[in-house]
Every structure is written in structure tokens, then in C-alpha cells.
């Protein structure tokens, strides 16, 4: 009779331990995700201003020097460098979206 009384208690403890073990990865994910998300959100205005500003400046410089037509100006290099800044900005926004899930 004493064995029958212990079986439900042990089963409850086992279920509790299984529940705790199941929730540990989710807790660890949130413990990593939230500080990274806070850092990304705090730095977002600076990154957005820098990337968008450099992209715009690069495009305007490329257009200006294309119109002036100096001999050795790397037009396509400047254009793709500016497009790269736009891609970095899009990737940064996507990273914020991934961590805010």
C-alpha cells in the first residue's frame, strides 16, 4: 500500500522536472534575445542615420562625378558601395525583426 501512495508523487515530480527541463531552452533564448534586442534598438537611430546618409552621399557623389566626367573616377565602385550601405541597413532592420520575434 505504501508503494501505491508513492507512485503518484514520483510521477508528479517527474512531470515537474520534465516541465522545467523543457522550459530551460526557452528561458535561455529569452535571456540572450532581450539584451541583444535592446542593444540593436538603442543603436538603430545611429545606424540608420549613418547608413542612409552614406548611401545618399555616395549616390549624389556618383551622379555628380558622372556628370562632370573625370578621367579616373570609379563610378560603378561608388555606386555599388552606396548600394551596399542600403543593404546593410535592410539587414540591420531584418536582424531587429528576427530578435523581436
Describe this entry's structure for a reader:
This protein is mainly α and 101 residues long. It has one domain. 91% of the residues lie in helices and 0% in strands. α1 runs antiparallel to α2. The longest helix has 67 residues. It is rod-shaped. The relative contact order is 0.10. The model has no long low-confidence stretch (mean pLDDT 87).
List keywords for this structure.
101 residues, mainly alpha, 2 helices, 91% helix, 0% strand
Chart the SSEs and their pairings:
Elements lengths: L1 H67 L6 H25 L2
Helix pairs in contact: 1-2
Number of strands: 0
H/E element order: HH
Mean pLDDT: 87
Which runs of at least 5 residues are low in confidence (pLDDT < 50)?
Answer: none
Tally of separate domains: 1
Radius of gyration: 27 Å
Major sheet details? none
Brief summary of the model shown:
The protein is mainly α.
Amino acid at each position: 500500500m505504501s508503494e501505491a501512495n508513492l507512485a503518484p508523487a514520483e510521477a508528479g515530480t517527474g512531470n515537474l522536472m520534465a516541465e522545467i527541463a523543457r522550459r530551460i531552452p526557452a528561458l535561455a533564448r529569452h535571456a540572450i534575445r532581450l539584451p541583444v534586442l535592446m542593444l540593436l534598438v538603442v543603436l538603430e537611430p545611429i545606424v540608420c542615420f549613418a547608413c542612409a546618409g552614406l548611401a545618399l552621399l555616395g549616390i549624389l557623389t556618383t551622379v555628380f562625378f558622372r556628370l562632370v566626367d573625370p578621367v579616373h573616377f570609379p563610378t560603378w565602385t561608388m555606386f555599388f558601395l552606396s548600394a551596399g550601405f542600403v543593404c546593410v541597413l535592410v539587414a540591420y532592420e531584418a536582424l531587429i525583426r528576427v530578435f523581436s520575434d
